[in-house]
Specification:
By secondary structure, the protein is mainly alpha-helical. About 60% of the residues lie in helices and about 0% in strands. It is elongated.
């Protein structure tokens, strides 16, 4: 705290959005494959798929061949914005609460 004023809570806000989006984007292909594996039986039931995936690598190969490389990030934009409200509250409250518990 400089000059007796608490630090501005929204200074690191753009950085928080970037780090949340980067973290979610790195994990997006794994999430996409997980969702495809979990929903494969419904896809078969509704006629969108013919046979179930044999294993994870089969799912990855099939998705890459049929939909392309960028399909692993389908639906990622909504996932990137999910942690924003939680992280905003965390960053804002940390700026005010952390100095109260300063040990060193």
């Amino acid at each position: 705290m400089e000059h007796g004023r608490p630090p501005a809570p929204f200074v690191p806000f753009p950085l928080m959005i970037f780090t949340a989006a980067a973290g979610k984007s790195l994990a997006a292909p794994l999430d996409r494959v997980k969702f495809l594996m979990q929903g494969q039986h419904e896809s078969i039931k509704h006629g969108r798929a013919v046979t179930p995936y044999r294993h994870v690598f089969n799912c990855i190969r099939h998705t890459y061949k049929s939909e392309g490389f960028l399909s692993f990030w389908r639906g990622n934009m909504a996932t990137c914005f999910l942690p924003v409200p939680t992280n905003a509250v965390t960053f804002a409250s940390r700026a005010y609460i952390a100095p109260l518990f300063k040990v060193f």
